[in-house]
Amino acid sequence: MQTSLLRILMTRCRENGMTDEVRQKFLDMHNYYRSKVAKGLAKDGAGGYAPKAARMKKMVRMLLLEDSVISHLQRSVGPKCFFY
């Protein structure tokens, strides 16, 4: 992808109402809980622990995907039900 097109797309994605700080917090919390599940430290509904995950991958930021998800949610539930 050409650098200028990528820059335009990334700028567009950043204008969706979510700050980098919120993105990072979401990512950190997701990966914290992902790690607990992967290590077998997450409790299950039966009072025990969920099995370990052998190859669970960490979540990474994908701004283009984020923009698509936010657009879909705004159409589905409306902007008043969303985070900004």
Automatic annotation (TrEMBL):
SUPFAM superfamilies: PR-1-like. InterPro entries: CAP_sf (IPR035940). This is SCP domain-containing protein. It comes from Ancylostoma caninum.
